[in-house]
Model the fold of this input.
Amino acid sequence: MHSDRLLLGPGPSNPYPEAMEALSRPVLGHLDPEFLTLVADTAQRLRTVFGTRNRLTLPVSGTGSAGMEACLASLLEPDDLAIVGVNGYFGERLCEVARRLGAQVRAVHAPWGRPLDPEQLLDAQRQAPQARLVAVVHAETSTGVRNQIAPLRELQNTDTLLLVDTVTSLGGIPVEVDAWGVDACYSATQKCLGAPSGIAPVTLSERAVQRIRDRERPVCSFYLDLSLLDAYYQGDPARYHHTASSTLISSVHAGLGRLLAEGLPAVWERHARVGERLQAALPELGFELFAEQGHRLPQLTAARLPDGVVDAAGRKALREDFGIEVGGGLGPLAGTGWRIGLMGHNAQTRPLTTLLAAITS
Done:
């Protein structure tokens, strides 16, 4: 017996039905021409969702963390300086991964629950123009905060690359890689893209690709070397790198097809509508919204628990009595708050009303 879950945490979310149906398609070999055509079509759909014309746009095997490490490992060399915006757990993870790669890290902080100041990030780069990259989380999954990316386009006038984490934003709110001057961007498929976990969409600008070509040392990770992955998926002929899953990529391809058939503006509006309804309802139930007004994500809401509600016990009751999963808090919210996701297929009225009925029962 398998339990049926309504996944309303920070991810994974329940996939679109089309993405689930695609999991039953015949398995293809990892160098089968039909598979490589599927990858190419998936990459084109990803370009549309990313808002980019970047040639190097790939579905990397692995979760969003693999996308993060692929970008950092491919773009950073030991002793390079990385400037990282930190206002939550995943900004801190960017710092940790960069340090493990041997880079120097200069963090620009904002309190958890508040957005980063783009001007502080730009000032940090002006003070250290040798910085290899500035890295920012667009949608901070630990707090429900949306950070501004567009003002960082000024970095295009420097030698510093702009790296953006869109793990929780892609497909849920506007992401405009080319218009915002983003050089490297990664995401994940199990949230607003409406597919299972296991694939990390990545896109790189031409100047980021050139930076990889100009490296003095090989990328420290073979598996996550984006130049090798590019030669595998988009080389002529394709070069074996690893055994990619045609099953997962078929599912992602189908999920993206569902999203694009609805249309990005309509999908963004759907996420905004249900997110606003949730955020209007929670304070009436005694919850305190964590993110600052005006900078809240519609697809991921972090909130402090009402008095008398015990974190673990409350989440256990939702799971066992109603089959609903929500996420526990991180950092200042650990043990005192929940993170509720209405993402992808779950960004609809039915999951929202089901959750609110369960909380009030």
Summary: The first helix runs from residue 17 to 22. The chain has a mean pLDDT of 97. The CA atoms of residues 33 and 119 lie 47 Å apart.
